[in-house]
Amino acid sequence: MSVPPPSPDDRLTVGQYLGRRLAQLGIGHVFGLPGDFNLALLDEMLSVEDLAWIGTTNELNGAYAADGYARVRRGTAALVTTYGVGELSAINGTAGSYSEDVPVVHVVGMPTTAAQSDGTLLHHTLVDGDFEHFVRAAREVSAEAVVVKHRAAASTIDRALLTALNTSKPVYIGVPVDVATSTVSALSLIRPLRRSVSDPEHLAALQSALWRALDHGTGEHSEPSDGTGNEAADAAAAVGASSTAGGASAATAR
Length: 254
Prior knowledge:
By secondary structure, the protein is α/β, with parallel strands linked by helices. It has 10 helices and 8 strands. The protein has helices spanning 14-24, 39-45, 59-73, 85-99, 113-118, 133-139, 153-167, 177-180, 200-218, 231-246, and strands at residues 11-13, 29-32, 52-55, 77-82, 104-110, 144-147, 171-176, 183-185.
């Protein structure tokens, strides 16, 4: 279903914003399992008509389903779990996606911002007032792990999704209950998120440096060497520059 472009005065909830962004990436199905900390988030996300919910018997199955969905469509996929027990159940699946360069967006419904800042003792926690345990675990198997705050919610979501696009790796987006229903401007949705493209000048520099490195190794000189003996280092530097400028633009091609 086509959604009209937003006007400068349009606002929507953070959950709706996230759902719209996922739909703009071509995601039509969201996998996962409801839980008490993601119910409000799911209500908001699934109010986006382009998204269909695919409930799974457990979070690990949801993670594997999202992984398969991303592979089949050669793009991103989305998984939604609840905080603590839900996300920990899914982490084996997202770790597999990380090791094989599959861009799964793992969305986690979290306790309220106030509960986290106060260190409230809640279920699904380790009852020590530290709500970052599982975020830290996710960082080990995610290209980026963020917890969305009221301020800069839209830009935080966009940054994480762009990381998934450009690295072809999973990302983790934690959304507290109160943040899921808070509102943000819809204006950013005018411009869909796109994978970064390679800079032609950096690619030309890479090609030239690689030729010099190959020439130096074989003794043949298709292009002149600079005589410094640093051709391999030049190639490595060019690779780094090209990667920084362009991202992993072909990472999802298999």
